[in-house]
Specification:
Layout: H1 9-54, E1 61-65, E2 71-76, H2 77-82, H3 85-100, H4 106-117, H5 123-134, H6 137-140, E3 144-155, E4 161-172, E5 177-191, H7 197-202, E6 207-217
Antiparallel strand pairs: 1-2, 3-4, 4-5, 5-6
């Protein structure tokens, strides 16, 4: 006969119930932790999507064509601009022509100025405002016109500044040449991708003149 005490069925049932109950509690706690983690992940993803939506950008593309208007190359305008110094020079020439020319037609003059201001940023805008307030082209056109011939466009070493030289020819309303003047400017320019549809329509290449200094050469 064994000396082991007889097993209490009530105590055994209680122990088994306690083990099952604690098992249910552990499972519930694990599911609660998992649910909290999933809620946090979903909240993070939602926030990331909302931030990405507010940071969306319009990316223009440049299509290069030949003389027959056949497409030769297609690529993002930002990459094309950054690698094409000739395009930057052309934009600088056009900027000087638009800001310094005076034509006899008021609507055409306004179009030149609007186009120039669409490519001006920072202190360049204030410079143009002060210049045109002191010497309005709409007043000048009553007596004469001014044509611009850019002669030199040089980028200063290791900088985003450019030196531009040009000749201005002033003519009377009868077309007779009154005089010619030589001018020089130091321009700071940058290229940045358009950040809105309005900016894309106004300045698709993202070329901006940010600082202007020009002087009359004797």
């Amino acid at each position: 006969m064994s000396g082991r005490a007889p097993e209490n069925p009530y105590l055994a049932a209680r122990l088994e119930w306690n083990e099952r109950y604690h098992g249910f509690l552990r499972a519930k706690r694990n599911w609660q932790i998992l649910a909290i983690v999933l809620v946090g992940v979903n909240a993070g993803l939602g926030g990331a999507l909302a931030w990405a939506a507010t940071q969306s950008r319009v990316v223009p593309y440049v299509v290069e064509v030949d003389r027959l208007r056949q497409a030769l190359a297609i690529g993002p305008a930002e990459r094309s601009r950054a690698s094409d110094a000739a395009l930057l020079r052309y934009q600088l020439i056009e900027f000087i022509r638009r800001t310094r020319s005076v034509v006899s037609d008021g609507a055409a003059e306004k179009q030149l100025l609007d186009s120039a201001y669409s490519q001006a940023s920072g202190s360049a805008v204030q410079f143009l405002n002060e210049h045109f307030q002191a010497k309005s082209p709409f007043v000048v056109m009553r007596e004469r016109t001014v044509s611009v011939q850019v002669t030199t466009v040089l980028q200063l070493p290791a900088s985003d500044s450019w030196q531009v030289q040009w000749i201005e020819t002033q003519r009377g309303l009868d077309g007779a040449v009154h005089k010619q003047e030589r001018w020089q400017a130091l321009l700071r320019a940058e290229v940045r991708a358009p950040e809105s549809e309005e900016e894309l329509l106004r300045n698709p290449l993202g070329f901006y003149v940010t600082d202007i200094q020009w002087t009359h050469q004797l």
